[in-house]
Structures are given as structure tokens and as C-alpha cells.
Amino acid sequence: MTGTKTDKATPLTLETDADLETDDERVLRQSSIATTPNPIPQTDYLCHLSGKLTSSSGQTITVELRYVPDKWILLPDALADYLHALAPPDREALELTASLVIDDLNNQLVARWLQITMSGPPEAATDITAHRILLEDRQPQWDNPALLQRIAGF
User: Fold this and answer.
1) From what superkingdom does this record's organism come (predicted)?
2) What would the CATH number be for the domain defined by 22-39+46-153?
3) What is the residue extent of each domain of the chain?
4) d(Cα 29, Cα 81) in Å, to the nearest integer?
């Protein structure tokens, strides 16, 4: 047929400074994620922290973190310290930054369940009014549907 689109798409490859990151840089960045023992590890409960991440040119990205702790809880000031240490370059895709954050927090926090939401200004498209990313992860055998249903009101 003439004039129809195919389902084949060219994969998007992003080469950023994060691709060139050394292990020492990653360890230094993750070291700002300070945790303390969970005072009630036998109980499933939801924690919510939010903060602002500023790119190298001053663009602000809102970061929302929700998690169900296991052995460790994140110290609230540690999120601010981590976000300050992160400072992504302006050309970095919001998806890539969100992926980096969830990986770092998973490595340091090891939560039962973890959700990251990031929202920021659209990169270059003038017809786009918002750009928001949600990533989620959980330990393989953990499930608490009743608790997770309450997220919207939390």
C-alpha cells in the first residue's frame, strides 16, 4: 500500500556523560545516599520524599520518591544531598536520569518496593506541555496490594 507507515522504528541511542561514568564517580555519587536501620522492619509502611534536581543550566526537575522500606530507611536530608550530587547535564533524557536514580537508590536502600516519579520541562518541543517519568521496582516475593492501593491518597 502506498502512503502507509511501517511498524519498524529506528532505536534511539543516547550517548551521554553517564555512559562515560567511572566506577569511582558512581560510588562517590551513591555515597551521599545515607540510610539508617528501619525502626519497624516487621511492618509494611509507605515513605514519601520529594525534592528538586537542578540541571547544569538551572532547569528544575521535580523528584518524588515513594518506597516501602525493608532493613533501611533513607534519611530525608540524604535525598537532597544525593540530588545535589547528581546534577545531570541538560541534554540528558529525563528517562535516563530517572533510571540512574532508581538504580542508585535500589543499590543503597534495597527497599521492598520503590517508585520514582520525575517531571520537568520538555526538552525542545514547544507543543509539549509536560514531561513526566514513573519507574517502579520491587523485591521478587514482596506484594501488598492493600498498601499500594493507598498511594494515590498519600
Assistant:
1) Bacteria
2) 3.30.1130.10
3) 22-39+46-153
4) 9
